[in-house]
Amino acid sequence: MARLVQAPLKFHPSEWDLAKQMQRASTESQKCRSERTVAESQRLLDEIERTTQKTQSDVNKKIEQRQKEIKFWKQELDDKLEQIVHETEVLLTFKTRLEKSLESCQEPLVIAQKCLLNRQKRVGIDLVHDEVEQELVKEVEVLQEVIALLGRTLEQTNEQIRLNRSVKYNLEMDLKDKFTALMIDDYCANLTNNSPNISYSDTAVKTEWKFVSPEDWVDFSNMNVEKADKQRNSSLALRALIDAILSQTASDLRRQRQVVNAAFTNRVKEVKDAKHKLETLLAMVLDEVASQEKNIAALKKAIADKEGPARVAQTRLEARKHRPNVELCYDPVQHRLTREVQEITMNIQRQDTLAEAETALKGLRRRQLSLEEEIQVKENSLYIDEVLCMQMRESVGINSF
């Protein structure tokens, strides 16, 4: 029993002192390591804080710079959008001018064609390919060429308007994206460490494959700006071309219209002069007809007046043939009666002039009929040119649009 209960192991006082010293040394060493760790931690914290603040400040500056870049390009896009919208609106007014000018050419063309058709109703020698007809044909050709030119220009204008609107759409889409990006960067610029609703995101630092480089970003907007400038310049050039075309075509149409009108005026004057001369000739013929009719009447009366004396003279000669015997003498009475009958017979035979006069009268009648027909031809031509054509042409003018 005494062996089982043993006294605890005793340490030497020097061991106790050594243990105490070791504890102190170990504690002091640990304390030093802890102090160094605290100091290193504080330095690290200070460095991290400085780095974080610097980085955050740099990010804020980058965001601010980015906002300025976006605002710059947004302003550029806004300016180009305003310009292209204004240019498209102006070009639309030019399109309206083209449409009105094109529409205004239809009636003059119809009238010119009607004039040509009406002038086909001239008859006789008046159905001539005169200067009026030549200029009318030329006017129809000019009008058709102008209509074709205006039509092509209108198609070109519609295409330019489409291109302008396409550029406008691209600018608006770019501006919309710029506006959204600016709103997002404004939101980011206003965020602070104490802002609510800030949180961690596991995918925040993940680079998306669809990200574009800053150079591509600039190139994209710059390309939209350049396209807007290009189409605006094309639109400006087209407007200048339209102005020139409208001015030139109106001038050409007016000039040709004046030429045609002058040709009509000259032709009407020529026909009136010809008609007047024909009427003068007709009056002369009518006077000669009347004179010839009087002459024929006088000849017929003269012939009729000689019948009595001829019958008396021949009756006397016949009666004196029955004188008896020696009384059947060729005395002065017989001689004179014979001469009288011969004279009257000769005078009657000289009335062949009556046949000639009647033939001449027939010729005069034919000339009268021919002249009257020709005057009717001239009257028909005057009616067509002066009434149908010239009055119809007066109702339409060439307007500048």
UniProtKB/TrEMBL annotation:
Location relative to the cell:
Cytoplasm, Cytoskeleton, Cilium axoneme; Cytoplasm, Cytoskeleton, Flagellum axoneme
Q: Which residues form a coiled coil?
A: 354-381
A biological process term (GO) from this entry: cilium movement involved in cell motility
Which GO cellular component terms are attached? axoneme; microtubule cytoskeleton; nucleus
Where would you find the membrane-spanning parts of this chain?
none
Q: Which UniProt keywords apply?
A: Cell projection, Cilium, Coiled coil, Cytoplasm, Cytoskeleton, Flagellum
User: Sorted alphabetically, which InterPro entries does this protein's record hold?
Assistant: Tektin-like, Tektins
Pfam families hit by this protein: Tektin
Q: How does it assemble?
A: Microtubule inner protein component of sperm flagellar doublet microtubules.
**Known role:** Microtubule inner protein (MIP) part of the dynein-decorated doublet microtubules (DMTs) in cilia and flagellar axoneme. Forms filamentous polymers in the walls of ciliary and flagellar microtubules.
Q: Which family does it belong to?
A: Belongs to the tektin family.
UniProt protein name: Tektin
List the taxonomic lineage. Answer: Eukaryota, Metazoa, Chordata, Craniata, Vertebrata
